[in-house]
Design goal:
single chain; 40% helix; Rossmann fold; UDP-galactose 4-epimerase, domain 1; 7-stranded parallel beta sheet; 3-stranded mixed beta sheet
Amino acid sequence: MSWLVTGGAGYIGAHIVRALGDAGLSPVVIDDLSSGHEEFVPAEVPFVRGTILDRGLLERTLREHGVEGVIHVAGFKYAGVSVQRPLHTYAQNVEGTRLVLEAMAAADVSNIVFSSSAAVYGTPDVDLVTEDTAKRPASPYGESKLIGEWLLRDQAVATAESEHPLRHTSLRYFNVVGSADPEVHDSSPHNLFPLVFEALLDGRTPRINGDDYATPDGTNVRDYVHVHDIALAHVVAAQRLASGEPIEPAYNLGSGDGLSVRQIMDAMARVTGIDFTPEIAPRRPGDPDRIVASGELAARDLDWRMRHTVDDMVRSGWEARRTAR
């Protein structure tokens, strides 16, 4: 039996594919390569190029590869851009998830791990976000992820008495960084790590958007979590679903304390050996001071823990980006 990874040619998906293989599971990838890279998929892993909006292709892939579960990573992940492209965001993330669930039902596949997002919380008014914190998404992207969670919940209710009841969990994570394989790097044009790496490689000075936040060093604080830790949590969730063990509907993959942007910049200079003083740019509208989540529930059930220091995160990401240059 195998596990289908939608979006498995992307930065996070490709790490999940490798972690599945390391755990003795058999990954299969479907990806339309709109933001993924076929070379990120190991040669021995079956790769299907196509969109999750093609329900027939999804069902055929599930049947032909004897899939027992889906790790659903594919989607449009740019929160800021989603404000300008709401219809595209909903098509990819809401309709895409609906079609994944529909194809699963048709092929009698009943396990799904959904890659959700901290964006479901919007700008929380608590110091430490838990799974019960109010959901107030502030972008079409965050809304689409929350609707995805609702789709899983409602399909589970609808199939509860059927021969193949849906078993599911959603993993909400924050700023994913680093690399566990120098052949796989974050190529997003919007994430902090690749933005800083590109600036350093081009001889430009990285910048910080605002240094007057209500935080110890004036820069905003976020959860930064290593991509390998994220991948391992997905694998444990898949194993738990397949074995019939109890599982929560959602988990935060959070650090519990967070890192500031200035701490990240200091680590960038320290690890790369490139001495720089970040430029200070104006705040971005709507950027909250701090968003940090508790990972206690995931630690209890999914072996979730922070296995990497900030220097590990920077060093691995920097190595992967330089390898790709």
